[in-house]
Amino acid sequence: MLQALLAALLMVAGMDAVTNILDLGAVPDNASVAAGRANSRILVAAFLQANTTDGVVLIPAGHNFTIFNSTMYNLHHIKLHLEGFLVVSDNISAANWPPPHTDYGCLHFLQSSFIEITGGGGIDGQGYNFWWEAIINPHPYRPHMLVMEQVHDIQIHDVQFYNSPNYHVDIRDARTVHLYNLQVWVDVEKQRSMLAQQGHMLQGGSIPTFPLNTDGFDIGAQDVLMENVTIQNFDDAVAVKPLTGASVYSNCSQNMLIRNCVVYDGVGMSIGSVPPHANTNCVRNITFEHIVFHHPLKAVYIKTNPGNVGTGIIDQITYRNLTAFNSVWYPIWIGPQQQQQPFTKGTGCSFLFPIDNQCPTQPLVPITNIHLEEVNFLGGLTLPGVLLCNATKPCTGFTFDNVQNSGEFAVQKEYFCANVHGSERYARPAPSCLAPALV
Questions:
Q1: Could you tell me which of 78, 76, 84 has the C-alpha nearest to residue 26?
Q2: DSSP secondary structure letters along 155-207
Q3: CA distance 254 to 317
Q4: Which letter does DSSP use for residue 115 in this model?
Q5: Is 18 helix (H, G, I), strand (E, B) or coil?
Q6: Please, are residues 128 and 92 in contact by the beta-carbon 8 Å criterion?
Q7: What predicted TM-score, i.e. pTM, was given to this entire model?
Q8: How far is CA 375 from the centre of its chain?
Q9: 109-138 pLDDT, tens per residue?
Q10: Using CA atoms, how far apart are residues 246 and 389, in angstroms rounded to an integer?
Q11: Sign of CA dihedral 394, 395, 401, 403
Q12: Are strands 420-425 and 64-67 parallel, antiparallel or unpaired?
């Protein structure tokens, strides 16, 4: 009765047809490998059927549907109505997650347009087995949860994402994207326990030194509005990724407004990382505003990455009306990425910088016109922040306007600031490399 009513309502709303995956033989509430493989095939079939009618793919309420990977191409004017849950199989054998297992999504949309994902349900990534595999294995089988690649006119709203094996939402080479009323939730206590067992936690178990890459949203796109989103994870809440001249929909990740978000335990509203690229990696004109952080590892995070070929651009980035409570590491970091990916040599920038002074800078990716306005960070533990650029290609055009940054600051009371030029007004403490602005 309810499913029939929903179908009727969607038809009235202007959609031509509803494809309920149960009608195609989907297997609900069954965690077996066989059910997961069947459901993955049926999801693809449902989208292909809906693609002929500008229709709706319905994941009905009250059920969980185990899946592996479903990749769809050339879909247009389709809605995925997630009332129930898609549940990623946590059977991590190589047979179930064949290469390129770290690059595809459990749901993967390619070369598509006018896609809407909504419905009040969501996707459960069941990440625990994947995370443990990543801790102990240099080649783990870890898909992203939702990937949208070479797409335009995308809406994702009123959906929940839980415990992804890798990134939760990865949008690559896109144009015109609206993300709103979303929740990303990662079991950070479970991650904390796993990492502590292998000695990958600092400061009494509050700071992970081994990234599990459970990013909330990685976005490489032009013309993006993201709003009213709550994120709890141990990695980037939002990471704006660069685009190049080889991208389809834009030669630069640009024109984004990310606002009205709450972040718990995250590693920043981030730019990057941005390495140099032969076709010029670019991020430009990004605004984060009205963001509240609770015990972040980082809040403001702009990061370059190593590389010796090509160039990069990070320009016109604004952080406005931010509040952070009880930062457990560095509330502001602008400079080389401070990270060592699992089983790699890392970027060369020590996680303990500036206590350990190893942090080579990147001359091929200048960081310019960075603006922090009306920022209030309370209860910091280590130091106010790090602003670190290259001596031969210094950062320019920085402004700190009413940036209040307070806490114990056990490492040092002032910013670490090198090769950065700009101005500050009413910043406390004032970065030593920024000149007082005329009031």
A1: 84
A2: EEEEEEEE--SS-SEEEEEEEEEEEEEEEEE--HHHHHHHHHHTT-EEGGGTE
A3: 10
A4: E
A5: strand
A6: no
A7: 0.94
A8: 22
A9: 999 999 999 999 999 999 999 988 888 876
A10: 27
A11: negative
A12: unpaired
Nearest-angstrom CA–CA distance, 291 and 298: 13
Q: Is 91 helix (H, G, I), strand (E, B) or coil?
A: coil
Residue 434 has pLDDT above 90, yes or no: yes
pLDDT in tens, 399-428: 999 999 999 999 999 999 999 999 999 999
Instruction: Report the distance separating Cα 319 and Cα 370, nearest Å.
Output: 8
Q: Cα separation of 243 and 177, whole Å?
A: 15
Q: What confidence tier does 15 reach under pLDDT thresholds 50, 70, 90?
A: very low
The 3-class secondary structure across 336-389, one letter per residue, is ECCCCCCCCCCCCCCCCCCCCCCCCCCCCCCEEEEEEEEEEEEEECCCCEEEEC
- 222: number of CA atoms within 13 Å, CB side? 12
Q: What is the C-alpha separation between 412 and 126, in angstroms, rounded?
A: 40
The closest of 330, 325, 258 to 292, measured between CA atoms, is: 325
Per-residue pLDDT of 253-272, as tens digits, reads 999 999 999 999 999 999 99
- In our burial notation (b when 16+ CB lie closer than 10 A, e otherwise), range 142-155 reads bbbbbbbbbbbbbe
Pick from 299, 324, 151: nearest CA to 237: 299
pLDDT band per the 50, 70, 90 thresholds, residue 206: low
Provide the β-strand partners of residue 70.
Answer: 107
Encoded tokens for 366 = 């200048």
The predicted-structure confidence for 340-384, as pLDDT tens digits, reads as follows 555 566 668 988 899 999 999 999 999 999 999 999 999 999 999
CA dist 163 and 126 (Å) reads 6
* 245 contacts: CB under 8 Å, gap ≥ 6: 251, 279, 280
